[in-house]
Write a structure and sequence with these properties.
Length: about 325
């Protein structure tokens, strides 16, 4: 009897030890929600992020990338991320600004005066942005999307031809006000809704970055692309606080390392610039045409952009005003 009891206790102890060992080494899946198309440059960036997370966590954390809005539009997936139902969110900074309006100055027309200046500023803006959105989660970093310009279903002879037409604008006050300043009717839409809006004629103009215009097939629907260069567009990566707070210290350290490496701006641009340089050729293959703006039209767009800063700040509040002040201080370190 005693031998039987001892054997039973031994088996139970061994079983418990094995259970603990298995539990300690069990993989935890992290869902990564993105609106970027599968096999796009952003999808490959996300795959690299997953590789780094696996490496730095010793295989404890595994990232599964869901591209092409498979888990929903970016506003919906951000809401899910904040509730802890999706672990990692990636989307346009416009989506993040919707729940953290203080970072909306990133979307202000004219706040970045050149590509070189933007490339200098974004690495310096990571920590201020991390602090600004800390009440929502851990900000991973910025993701390049490129200059936002204006796509049109119909060819335009000047910016004045767009007056009276419906413009798919970013869903932010400053974007809505910009196009209204230029005489258009702003229709704020999520990126995932833009294709159907073009197909049905709900909008005939789109505020979009060239990379997304080409990668999403919107170049076939709105084949005339006008280089307004009114804002340098970026995406962002966020791990919601419900997910972040449930992590162990070791897991958080692994994610921080992966964030700093995967979303390093200089490294990302070395990949993105190669893709960006081929965009005009790809767009031409889709039957699209890229148009330079006249100096007169460029001045009109620039003036409209400058006119919307203060009204937008009044609507967005003091947090946005403080963030803009930080941006402008950083901009002094980064000449155009």
């Amino acid at each position: 009897m005693k031998i039987g009891k001892m054997l039973t206790k031994g088996v139970l102890a061994l079983t418990a030890s094995l259970s603990i060992a298995v539990s300690a080494h069990a993989q935890q899946e992290l869902k990564f929600a993105s609106v970027a198309p599968e096999n796009s440059v952003w999808f490959k960036m996300a795959q690299n992020y997953g590789r780094l997370i696996s490496e730095y966590s010793g295989g404890n954390l595994q990232l599964t990338v869901y591209p092409g809005a498979q888990l929903g539009a970016q506003d919906a997936t951000l809401s899910q991320a904040l509730r802890g139902r999706i672990e990692v969110w990636s989307g346009g900074i416009v989506g993040l600004a919707g729940v953290a309006p203080e970072i909306s100055p990133l979307l202000f027309p004219g706040v970045f005066e050149s590509s070189a200046q933007a490339n200098c500023m974004f690495p310096l803006l990571v920590e201020p942005t991390r602090a600004a959105v800390a009440h929502l989660g851990e900000f991973g970093g910025f993701v390049p999307v490129g200059w936002n310009n204006m796509a049109s279903v119909n060819e335009l002879t000047s910016i004045a031809d767009a007056a009276g037409q419906n413009m798919r604008s970013l869903p932010t006050p400053v974007a809505v006000q910009l196009w209204q300043q230029l005489g258009m009717t702003s229709v704020p839409l999520d990126t995932a809704e833009t294709g159907s809006a073009l197909s049905t004629g709900m909008v005939t103009l789109v505020d979009t970055a060239m990379a997304f215009w080409v990668a999403t097939g919107h170049a076939e629907l709105a084949p005339h692309y006008y280089l307004t260069q009114h804002n340098y567009n970026v995406g962002g990566v966020l791990i919601g606080n419900r997910t972040w707070d449930a992590m162990t210290d070791e897991q958080r350290d692994a994610l921080r390392r992966a964030n700093d490496e995967a979303w390093n701006w200089e490294s990302l641009m070395s990949v993105f610039s190669g893709f960006e340089s081929r965009l005009a050729e790809i767009a031409g293959g889709q039957g699209a045409t890229i148009h330079e703006l006249s100096e007169e039209d460029r001045a009109i767009v620039r003036a409209a952009g400058e006119a919307v800063w203060e009204p937008a700040l009044e609507e967005l509040g003091e947090g946005a005003r403080a963030y803009l002040k930080t941006m402008l201080e950083i901009r002094k370190q980064c000449p155009a």
